[in-house]
Hints:
By secondary structure, the protein is α/β, with parallel strands linked by helices. Helix content is 30%, strand content 30%. The chain has helices spanning 6-16, 29-33, 53-60, 72-85, 119-131, 148-151, 165-171; strands spanning 43-47, 64-69, 89-93, 106-112, 133-144, 176-189, 193-205.
Amino acid sequence: xxxxxxxxxxxxxxxxxxxxxxxxxxxxxxxxxxxxxxxxxxxxxxxxxxxxxxxxxxxxxxxxxxxxxxxxxxxxxxxxxxxxxxxxxxxxxxxxxxxxxxxxxxxxxxxxxxxxxxxxxxxxxxxxxxxxxxxxxxxxxxxxxxxxxxxxxxxxxxxxxxxxxxxxxxxxxxxxxxxxxxxxxxxxxxxxxxxxxxxxxxxxxxxx
Length: 208
């Protein structure tokens, strides 16, 4: 979802959750299902990491994780979660549209519900995610499809920010697509994502 002041918006949402975590502390279910593809010692980037549930889980799997998040409130809660789980994550506060993305730096990029980017900027954002993968690196992406606006159980209300299989296939045409599917499933991720949801998963590999 696009907001005039995204840092204030997301910090407000994370702050309003109090001691709780807006999207819970368990990893995203799609991401956890990819555990068999991951290897200890790999480098990983968690994009728009929020309160840390996904970066912390990746670190628990033995990966060297960098997590980028705009909200200082989200980062504070993410650091607290990492400390409680006794794992190390390199947390970076940055606007992903302005961040200096390293080239060919990561074995894994996790992009879970990052549908805040306006369509006009989306292709450049996707290109940065693909470009930061090492040759052979994996992109693990989950989002909502346009049908999600009917369910109102999470995600942006702007249909143009949602994903279709055709959109993702075209946007990541330079990657080898290993898995791409749209489906519906009941999810429970804190109070932020809760209920019947229209989801789309992408697993893709950078050639090389």
